[in-house]
């Protein structure tokens, strides 16, 4: 695995052009092929060749990735919500990584998809067209055809896909509904974190209060952009950190006058309390809007129940 950091000289370049420039031992054609095969990652994320990179992004290239990770089929339980000739709507469990990569060679959603749907081997990344963080649960759409894959990616690039999340946070927003419009980029002090940065990519989140439990609350969050860790970064920046988020709420912030039961709940919750609840997108067959939802994960439902009881 090779890695390079994007400099100011390469800011806002296409990924294929920037990677070919930084990794000059490889041709741009070879780099583009590896991008499409999932061998090139930006900040640990899959990008398309024409996606732009910005200063301080980290580009990883693994020419021999097949020797290190496995896209072999594995019998991994999947919760399918609906499927047809074009796509699969599924409810991803928390703790399940979406695809093999650096630090996770197999046992992923992609491995499970290839076991249950062997035909997905013909599609890039087993039909995966968007992703969720490992510890975020909820709705995902998987392409079953190249035509639908291209359609969905085009809709994402034009920001026509609508996604709603549910999060449980420490604190209560001062407004019932508000917009967070703050650019996000790589944290200068930590490679595994993102941060609000003036020179970052534009990022827009719309936050609405669903329910409050004394000094804690459940929020509905919709996103107009899909930056890495966007919701987690935006909420933490606005002093509404997700319960259980070890990266952006490492001190497990406890609100004043919290009961002993609530303190224990918050300190022991094992992952960020974030769930991708609903996704909406335009049908490939007509202009109808399709909507799919995943029921709130059991651990978050239990967290909400206990906050209602003990807060």
What does this structure look like?
Strand 12 and strand 13 form a beta hairpin. Strands 7, 8, 9, 10, 11, 14, 15, 16 and 17 form a nine-stranded mixed sheet that branches. Strands 1-6-3-4 form a four-stranded antiparallel sheet. The protein is an alpha+beta fold and 311 residues long. Helix 1 crosses helix 2. The protein is built from seven helices and 17 strands. The mean pLDDT is 92. The longest helix has 13 residues.
> How big is the Rg?
20 Å
Alpha carbon gap, first and last residue:
48 Å
By DSSP, the count of extended strands is 17
- Main beta sheet: strand number and arrangement? 9 strands, mixed
Q: pLDDT average, as an integer?
A: 92
Report the uncertain regions.
none
Q: H/E series, N to C?
A: EEHHEEEEEEHEHEEEEEEHHEEH
Tally of individual helices: 7
Oligomer type: single chain
Structural class: alpha+beta
Strand content: 25-35%
Q: What portion of residues is helical?
A: 10-25%
What overall geometry do the principal axes of the alpha carbons give?
Answer: globular
Keywords, please?
single chain, 311 residues, alpha+beta, four-stranded antiparallel β-sheet, 7 helices, 17 strands
Secondary structure elements and pairings:
Blueprint: E1 2-5, E2 13-14, H1 15-22, H2 28-36, E3 40-42, E4 45-46, E5 52-53, E6 58-61, E7 79-83, E8 87-92, H3 109-116, E9 137-143, H4 146-157, E10 162-170, E11 177-181, E12 184-186, E13 194-196, E14 204-213, E15 216-223, H5 230-237, H6 260-268, E16 274-282, E17 289-293, H7 298-310
Parallel strand pairs: 9-16
Antiparallel strand pairs: 1-6, 2-5, 3-4, 3-6, 7-8, 8-9, 10-15, 10-16, 11-14, 12-13, 14-15, 16-17
Helix pairs in contact: 1-2
């Amino acid at each position: 695995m090779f890695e390079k950091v994007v400099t100011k000289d390469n800011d806002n370049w296409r990924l294929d052009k920037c990677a070919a420039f930084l990794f000059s031992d490889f041709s741009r054609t070879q780099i583009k092929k590896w991008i499409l095969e999932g061998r090139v990652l930006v900040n640990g994320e899959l990008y398309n060749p024409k996606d732009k990179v910005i200063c301080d992004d980290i580009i990883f290239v693994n020419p021999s990735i097949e020797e290190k990770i496995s896209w072999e089929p594995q019998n991994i339980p999947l919760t399918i919500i609906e499927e047809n000739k074009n796509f699969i709507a599924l409810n991803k469990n928390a703790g399940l990584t979406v695809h093999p990569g650096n630090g996770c060679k197999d046992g992923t959603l992609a491995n499970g998809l290839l076991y249950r749907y062997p035909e997905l081997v013909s599609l890039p990344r087993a039909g995966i067209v968007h992703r969720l963080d490992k510890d975020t649960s909820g709705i995902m759409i998987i392409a079953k055809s190249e035509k639908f894959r291209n359609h969905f990616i085009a809709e994402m690039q034009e920001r026509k896909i609508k996604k709603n999340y549910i999060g449980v946070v420490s604190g209560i927003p001062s407004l019932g509904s508000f917009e967070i419009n703050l650019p996000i980029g790589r944290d200068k002090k930590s490679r595994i974190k993102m941060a609000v940065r003036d020179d970052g990519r534009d990022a827009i989140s719309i936050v609405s209060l669903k329910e409050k439990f004394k000094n804690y609350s459940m929020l509905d969050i919709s996103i107009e952009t899909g930056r890495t860790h966007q919701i987690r970064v935006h909420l933490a920046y606005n002093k509404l950190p997700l319960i259980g988020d070890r990266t952006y709420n490492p001190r497990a912030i406890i609100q004043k006058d919290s009961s002993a039961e609530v303190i224990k709940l918050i300190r022991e919750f094992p992952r960020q309390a974030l769930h991708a609840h609903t996704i909406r997108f335009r049908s490939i067959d007509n202009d109808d809007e399709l909507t799919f939802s995943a029921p709130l994960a059991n651990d978050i439902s239990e967290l909400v129940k206990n906050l209602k009881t003990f807060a």
